[in-house]
Amino acid sequence: MTGPCLAGSWCGSGATAPTECAEGTHSAAVGLAHVGECSETRPGHYSTKGSTVETPCGGPSLFCPGGEGEPRTVGDGTETFTDVSLFNAPADHASTR
After folding, report:
1. What global pTM score does this model have?
2. Distance CA 70, CA 72 (A)
3. CA-to-CA distance for 92 and 80, rounded, in angstroms?
4. Exposure string for 58-97, b = 16+ CB within 10 A, e = fewer
5. E strand or H helix at 81, and its extent?
């Protein structure tokens, strides 16, 4: 492969194309050479496959324990606390207050 490996992916030895960081991991760095260089997503966030940054979890009906590719929905009648000022947090359409 010519040139550095793109952000959100890694390029192993002899790779002809980049491999995206897995769901629950991310990387803004370029030139990663091993899957282990993709960072695990912190609790309160999630990362889809090939993410370059973490995404804040979102509203009170969502739960993100960390290291996952999408938020979990909490059960009916249950809420989680979310800092509503989180930049780019997804909207919560299932809140049960």
Report:
1. 0.73
2. 7
3. 11
4. bbbbbbbeebbeebeebeeeebbebeeeeeebeebeeeee
5. none
